[in-house]
Design brief:
Helices cover 38% and strands 18% of the residues. It has 382 residues and is α/β, with parallel strands linked by helices. Strand 13, helix 13 and strand 14 form a beta-alpha-beta unit. The N and C termini lie far apart (56 Å). The structure holds adenosine monophosphate.
Length: 382
């Protein structure tokens, strides 16, 4: 087993890597100066057709790390589905499909997205066209396999993205069944933020002498986030939030609540107070979620009230603030929530509102973090 632990970013430029001119141009269009560390590590072996296990978090640039070789591996003469990307959530599927479409803009790939929560009819229709790439969640993909509307016998490239999350969500049996539908000789890339034994088991059983790759810092985004907390009376949280928002010129803030009900209530209150805000939680349809996200990404709403559904994978550039209105449940949730800001090297602020009766619970989270969270004073008294 080969493991490459990266201590410094290797000096590789996109020009050093051999991929087609169309993809080179598409990468140049993104305005990226150089490969991110995980890209510098994973692109060469993946372009060579090797299997790769990458320890990487969202925000590391892993989507492009598996998308570029995927695009390069497609054979225009082959019919049927050649590549499949398995992800844990609909949001991630949409993001991966968008990145694939962007990076293949000169030789359009048009991935078919297969996720639950949306009508199956249009998906079946899309699969009947010349679908070469499929991106989706395990449950719905298995559903298509069972219905016979999807065949994976021509798959030569398979990605398991956020594998730990997929297993946490109970998808292990589905993932294994999907793997069994694909040819043994396929190339496989697996990305995960952690490497529990179940994943090691899948790697051992289903991958061919993979390269193990890791960047030294497992939480790259967290270092560039300024983290503060405010101690206050729990009843003053809405007022505190308002004063935080008012103190900023043009904030783009995600505000986290624990429950759908809490998020809905806060959203209603903010709108009543004259703020333009979006609301994102698991009870919304996919169409509603997409619309809310598009409005937020476009800056037309500057506050997004969300439950943890938005904590993982959501990639909105320029989010300036993450506000923990309710405390996160644990350290991991904290890290994933605050990872929504300071994307791709930008700065961001993570604010936690800690009610007097929550101090003990928050101290427990604080102790589990590698960086210090400062206590701060509200811009104007709440
Ligand atoms: P990911 O880890 O795939 O969720 O990517 C995080 C963000 O980094 C996305 O917005 C990408 O568009 C962006 N990104 C990917 N590769 C690069 C790169 N080489 N340079 C700068 N940004 C990048």
């Amino acid at each position: 087993m080969v493991t490459s632990i990266l201590h410094e970013a290797p000096r590789v430029s996109f020009d050093d890597l051999s991929f087609s001119r169309g993809t080179q141009r598409a990468v140049a269009d993104q305005g990226w100066d150089a490969p991110t560390p995980i890209q510098a590590l994973a692109l060469p072996p993946l372009l060579e057709g090797e299997d790769v296990v990458g320890l990487a978090q969202t925000g590391s640039g892993k989507t492009a790390a598996f998308s570029i070789p995927l695009i390069e591996a497609l054979n225009p003469k082959t019919r049927g589905v050649q590549a499949i990307v398995l992800v844990p959530t609909r949001e991630l599927a949409a993001q991966a499909a968008a990145e694939l479409a962007n990076l293949s803009r000169y030789e359009p790939v048009r991935p078919v997205v297969l996720c639950g929560g949306t009508a199956i009819g249009p998906q079946i229709k899309a699969l009947k066209g010349r679908a070469s790439v499929v991106v989706g969640t395990p449950g719905r993909i298995l559903d298509h396999l069972n219905r016979g509307t999807l065949r994976l016998g021509s798959v030569s490239y398979l990605v398991l993205d956020e594998a730990d999350r997929m297993l946490d969500m109970g998808f292990a049996p589905d993932v294994k069944r999907i793997l069994s539908y694909t040819p043994d000789g396929r190339q496989t890339a697996l990305f995960s933020a952690t490497m529990p034994d179940t994943i090691r088991g899948i790697v051992k059983q289903h991958m061919r002498s993979p390269r193990w790759l890791a960047v030294e810092s497992e939480a790259p985004t967290v270092d560039t986030v300024e983290q503060v907390y405010y101690r206050l009376d729990g009843r003053d949280k809405t007022r505190a939030l308002r004063s935080l928002i008012d103190a900023e010129e043009n904030p783009l803030a995600i505000v986290f609540r624990r429950t759908k009900h809490g998020a809905t209530k806060l959203h209603r209150q903010l709108e009543r107070d004259g703020y333009k805000a979006g609301l994102l939680h698991g009870g919304k349809t996919q169409a509603q979620r997409n619309k809310t996200l598009a409005t937020f990404v476009g800056g037309r709403t500057r506050i997004l009230v969300a439950t943890n559904v938005a904590a993982r994978g959501l990639d909105v550039p320029n989010v300036s603030h993450v506000v923990n209105y309710d405390l996160p449940e644990d350290v991991e949730t904290y890290v994933h929530r605050i990872g929504r800001t300071a994307r791709a090297g930008k700065d961001g602020v993570a604010v936690t509102l800690v009610g007097e009766n929550e101090i003990k619970e928050f101290n427990k989270i604080k102790r589990g973090l590698p960086v210090e969270v400062r206590e701060s004073k509200l811009p104007i008294s709440a």
